[in-house]
Write a structure and sequence with these properties.
The protein is mainly alpha-helical. It has a domain of about 90 residues. Helix content is about 60%, strand content about 5%. It contains 5 helices and 2 strands, in the order αββαααα. A two-stranded antiparallel sheet has the order 1-2. Strand 1 and strand 2 form a beta hairpin. Helix 2 crosses helix 4, helix 3 runs antiparallel to helix 4 and helix 3 crosses helix 5.
Length: about 130
């Protein structure tokens, strides 16, 4: 893995990273390049399997993205994440630790909550956080 300085270079080489075509502030195509068809096919097959694994973090990520962007784009995004995790495992030598579906959903809800609070404060409301347990 020493050929690639970081995971972004590897995913760019594999052509599984999203494109970023923007001109004059207008976002155009985010289509991926052709790249290595065998690697892309393997990663998307792995993404299909990961999307069907109950309780896995990649399952939660797939469903979050698929709800917004569609199933095939979600597969490319999950394949990209798989490639990044493979790079990290090979680079560091540490085994992969799945954080789980619950952690991903919890992080997502916290980020959403913070975004809503920021939006309300921008509109002039004072927000105080009160913790309640059910």
């Amino acid at each position: 893995m020493s050929k690639f300085p970081d995971e972004a270079h590897l995913s760019s080489w594999a052509a599984i990273c999203p494109g970023n075509n923007e001109s004059a502030g207008k976002k155009k195509s985010g289509k991926t390049r052709r790249g290595n068809n065998y690697l892309k096919a393997t990663l998307t097959e792995s993404a299909w399997a990961a999307s069907r694994t109950k309780g896995a973090a990649l399952n939660a990520v797939y469903h979050i993205i698929a709800r917004r962007r569609g199933k095939k784009r979600a597969l490319v995004a999950v394949g990209h994440r798989i490639l990044i995790e493979i790079y990290r495992v090979l680079k560091t030598g540490k085994p992969y630790q799945d954080v789980g579906e619950d952690i991903v959903n919890e992080r997502r809800s916290k980020k959403r909550e913070q975004a809503m609070i920021r939006d309300l404060e921008r509109r002039g409301y004072a927000v105080s956080k009160v913790m309640t347990t059910i």
